[in-house]
From TrEMBL:
InterPro entries to which the protein is assigned, alphabetical: AmpC-like, Beta-lactam-related, Beta-lactam/transpept-like, Peptidase_S12_Pab87-rel_C
Domain of life: Eukaryota
Signal peptide: none
Family membership: Belongs to the peptidase S12 family.
Protein name, UniProt field: Peptidase S12 Pab87-related C-terminal
Ranges of residues in domain Beta-lactamase-related: 16-348
Region (Disordered): 387-409
Ranges where the Peptidase S12 Pab87-related C-terminal domain occurs: 408-512
Organism: Penicillium hetheringtonii
Stored Pfam families: Beta-lactamase, DUF3471
PANTHER family on file: BETA-LACTAMASE-RELATED DOMAIN-CONTAINING PROTEIN, D-ALANYL-D-ALANINE-CARBOXYPEPTIDASE/ENDOPEPTIDASE AMPH
Amino acid sequence: MQIAIKTDESPFDPEFDALVSKLLEEWKVPGLSIAVVHGSESYSKAYGISNLPDKEMTTDTLFPTCSTTKAFTALSTALTIQDSKATDSPIDWDIPVSKLLPEDFVLADDYATTHITLEDALSNRSGLPDHGWMFTFTPNDMTSESLVRSLRHLPLTNSPRTTYHYSNQLFSTVSYALEKQTGQSLGSFMKKRIWNPLGMHDTYFSIPEVKANPSNAERLSGGYTWIPDGKGGYYYHLEKSMNWMPNKGAGSMVSTVRDYTLWIRALIEKSGPLEGQDTLVKPRIFHFDSGDVNLPSPYHAYALGWFVDNYRGQDFYWHTGGWPGFGSYVGFLPEKKFGFVFMGNSNLARRASYELAVYLMDKLLGPADPKHREKMSSCFAKQREELDENLQPTKAKDSKRKVFPNLPNPPIPQSLPLENYTGTYRHPSNAWITLEITGGNLTADVSQGTLPSKLTFTHASGDFFVAESKVLDLISLGPFGVEFHVDSTGAATKIGIPLEPAMKGENIWFERSSSE
């Protein structure tokens, strides 16, 4: 039975309303929809605009929930494991993914291929970093199968179970394995086994599914990014809809804060499909990332689709979701029977939501120690400094110094005429980049992916260039150094780009297409 949600009571008092207004302006978020679960009650309220210029946000506004999908994928895995116990081929958390996908799941390292389990994949301890550049450089119509098969071409940076690496690609891999195991789409499985039992009848598995129903499409929020206009001002850029099919269980869901209160309550009460699923929030690996909404603690943990922290003596489980134009934040304190969900129409809504969540938890837990308040204030201030810095345009000469601090003076001339660097370069993962000359500059319009990017290259020294990227709001690809390999015949045969931060400056190499 669906829980009645109250919309006119605390915790949304005037002080909270004022803080929301302040943070929406500071973080340039057009609107935010919020819900809180506390004890037997649920509350919700919406602020600001869902679709510019003037469509008001509501608590029934639909949002891509992005990576908060991961917890549903973890639960789907637990239920599939549970179902398998009654079959002739039972599986468990420790089954290697390669046994479920023997033809498809192959990694660059044989040991990793044969030893990475479902548990490893869903706890971000596989040793395979995220390789988020795949969203930009691979085709938008990539299938789940082709994504999984492409992983063999991506470098690992650590051995399994030794290091935390957030990996959308492995959540997508598990989603594909679940579909093979159950014989149905993951969205259908979630609807039947999770959403319907919880009464989540306003939750969907993809943007296209929402848009297929005109009344639902009307409630879908636009997604916005506050960016410089190149003339000294700023404007809200309307982002295109999120629709990368392999993303599936990594971040494809669409829902409302009202529906998510039913999910949060089940998590707190361990009821419905969550009964007996304590393993989902058991920490699997520690990590030390500062992140964008991590509490200022020396370490954190990750479970199965959940981050695990301790806030003022309380176990705190949470996850964010982000995509250009959208940000979400879900968390709960089970001992206090308290939880929250924020959904906003800017990726930076996560930052505003973080500060609001801390406010709500402090109000719940009572006056905080002065040192704690000082630590949180410092954390918020640092985030604002980062925002101000990121919004400032970077001059080419500053980018060169940042990327190549030891450039010779004068720099070494480039070894080839600019036009000789142009052409299409391909990576075996089915990623590619095409370089051309635009306005006298070497450029690349990487438009084949779901996160298109425009790159501009500035010569630094020799066959090294600095690239600036205009991927908005989510994945920062610049400024960064780019290296060309020129062979003995004087031909540019490869371009190396440091696309994966965990590789610490090592390049992903694209080879010139043989048709060039």
